[in-house]
C-alpha cells in the first residue's frame, strides 16, 4: 500500500485519465476500425484490467476484493481519458444515429508503438484478447455477459461484506 501512496505522491498515472486514456487507445487500436459508445468503452476498460474475471488471460491489475465497485466509478475516468486522448488526436469521436461513438485516431497505433514498458506489452495483449473475444458481440449479448458477471461480482461483494460484519465484536 505504501508503494501506491508513494507513486501517487510522485505523480505517476495510477488510475488517472492518462492511464485510462492509454488503455482506451489500446483497446480501440485492437478493434480498429470499429467504434464504440462510452458504456462499452467503460466495460472494455474494466475487462482489460480484470480479464481473468471473465475467463480471459491473467488480469492486468491485482484481483482486489470489492473491485466490482470499480464499474460504478470508472465511467467518468474513462470519459476524461477519452477526451484527453481526443485532444492529442489519438481518439476520434463521431456522432451517429445511435449516439456518440469513439474510434482509434490516425496516430493511435504509432503512439502505442512508442510505449515499450512491460505494462504496455501486457495491456496490448489484453486489448487484443478483448477485441478477439468480445469485439464482435452484439449489444444484447454483451449486456448479458456483463450482467451475468456483474451479478457474480455483487455476490462476491456480499460474501466479503457478510464475513467482515461477522468478525466485528
UniProtKB/TrEMBL annotation:
It comes from the Bacteria. InterPro entries: ABC-3C_MC2 (IPR046904). This is Threonine efflux protein. It comes from Rhizobium etli. The lineage of its organism: Bacteria, Pseudomonadati, Pseudomonadota, Alphaproteobacteria, Hyphomicrobiales.
